[in-house]
TrEMBL record, chain A:
Protein name: Zf-TFIIB domain-containing protein
InterPro entries referenced in this protein's UniProt entry, alphabetically: TF_Znf (IPR027392)
Region (Disordered): 44-95
Organism per entry: Streptomyces aureus
Compositional bias of kind Basic residues: 73-87
The Transcription factor zinc-finger domain, residue ranges: 2-40
Automatic annotation (TrEMBL), chain B:
Name listed for the protein in its UniProt record: Aminoglycoside phosphotransferase family protein
UniProt-listed InterPro entries: Aminoglycoside_PTrfase, Kinase-like_dom_sf
Domain of life: Bacteria
Aminoglycoside phosphotransferase domain: residues covered: 90-250
Coiled-coil stretches: none
Length: 95, 315
């Protein structure tokens, strides 16, 4: 999906079982119905019990990128296939 | 000559090159059209592929490029005939058939093989090639894409693309020769430019010599670099490609952090791909898809980071 504010592509993340979409351009976050409640519930659980330290995110060594590049999010890439969004599959094969 | 006349003439030519006689044949893919675009028509008949090159292709330059391919058989697919033939008003070349990268499985793309072939191509001493090669046509193709965008009619994405183009150094816009580095370059690398020969089992080879020539080797890495920078190609695949290139002895300018050398070509290929996407979208009356929007967004961000200042080198 595209960001309603800046129209950049939005990437889906899983945060403690809650799916959120974050814009790769303005970093805005989109929540589906019920997701805010889920996050609030998780937050209250967090406050009630001191949780163990979260494991360091499993990150591929980040590759240098130019300043004009799209914001890359650690841990998002790799590990799954069929990730070529939009018409990128076609773009890979054309001049 | 209309496109359909060319196609039937080319089909007959491919058949004639594959075998004599006009009777029925059992050749696989007899008369299969592999590509039919303004910049080239490609027809297969059995083990033979015939390509009609773009109108206006210079015969001396094409023959020099063919000679280079013939001289580098482990890197480029060698042509079947040493010089281009005339077919009406077009130049035609003949090639053995090879199997391409599966377009339905780009995640299995042979990034390491592509990178290794490029590293070997870039290391070829150009003085040892049969004839003087023209410049590689990468920047010229970017300029043609921008010309197509200008001719396509108004579109909201044109302004950021043209602004990014105007910020590029003159050599990357094909306005001055790119004399800063001179290696043998493919000039138009993408996943459609690799085949296995023999089909399915043989080693990967580079095809399509139309843009081959001398220039900045960074151009050949710049399309995957642009895809990565635009957030389209996962960092993992880009890193595999870049690392394999560096480990195979790629150009010195691309060792270590390659971005000082890649910045201008990757910008130019982002502009080129975005310009062609918008021109096609205008012609088809469709909106840009997600990947195309990502290219336009990158063009938009380029204005904030001038190319000349990014690395302190005005090439």
């Amino acid at each position: 999906m595209q960001c309603p504010k800046c129209h950049a592509p939005m990437h889906t993340y899983n945060r403690n079982g809650v799916q959120i979409e974050q814009c790769s351009g303005c970093r805005g976050i989109f929540l589906d119905y019920g997701e805010l409640e889920s996050l609030t519930r998780l937050e209250s659980q967090w406050q009630q019990q001191v949780p163990p330290a979260p494991p360091a995110p499993q990150a591929y060594p980040s590759a240098p990128a130019p300043a004009w590049g799209a914001p890359h999010h650690g841990g998002h890439h790799g590990g799954h296939h069929g990730h070529h969004k939009g018409g990128f599959g076609r773009m890979l094969f054309s001049s | 000559m209309t496109a359909s006349v060319l196609l039937s003439a080319l089909t007959a030519t491919a058949r004639g090159a594959a075998h004599p006689g006009q009777g029925p044949c059992a050749c696989p893919a007899a008369g299969a059209v592999l590509a039919d675009r303004a910049d080239g028509t490609v027809v297969r008949h059995g083990d033979i592929v015939a390509k009609a090159h773009a109108p206006g292709t210079d015969p001396a330059e094409l023959n020099a490029r063919l000679a280079a391919a013939a001289a580098l058989p482990g890197i480029l697919l060698p042509p079947l005939t040493p010089v281009a033939a005339d077919l009406h008003d077009r130049l035609v070349t003949f090639w053995p058939h090879g199997s391409p990268v599966d377009p339905d499985a780009p995640e299995r793309a042979p990034w390491e093989d592509a990178a290794t072939l490029l590293a070997r191509l870039h290391a070829v001493p150009t003085a040892q090639l049969p004839g003087p090669l023209p410049p590689m046509r990468g920047p010229a193709k970017a300029a043609l894409a921008v010309a197509r965008l200008l001719a396509a009619g108004p579109h909201a994405a044109s302004a950021p693309i043209l602004r990014a183009w105007s910020g590029l150094p003159p050599w990357a816009r094909a306005e001055t020769p790119g004399g800063h580095v001179s290696a043998l370059c493919h000039g138009d690398l993408h996943l459609g430019q690799l085949v296995r020969r023999p089909a399915g089992t043989g080693p990967w080879l580079l095809i399509d010599v139309d843009d081959l020539g001398t220039g900045d080797p960074a151009w050949d890495l710049a399309r995957p670099a642009a895809w990565f920078a635009c957030g389209l190609l996962p960092a993992q695949e880009w890193t595999r490609f870049l690392t394999a290139y560096q480990e195979a002895g790629g150009a010195p300018s691309l060792q270590g952090d390659p971005w000082p050398a890649l910045d201008a070509p990757a910008r130019a290929l982002t502009v080129q791909t975005a310009a062609l996407a918008v021109a096609k979208a205008v012609a088809a009356g469709r909106v840009l898809d997600e990947a195309e929007e990502a290219l336009v967004d990158a063009c938009d961000r380029m204005a904030a980071v001038p190319a000349e200042l990014a690395h302190g080198v005005a090439k």
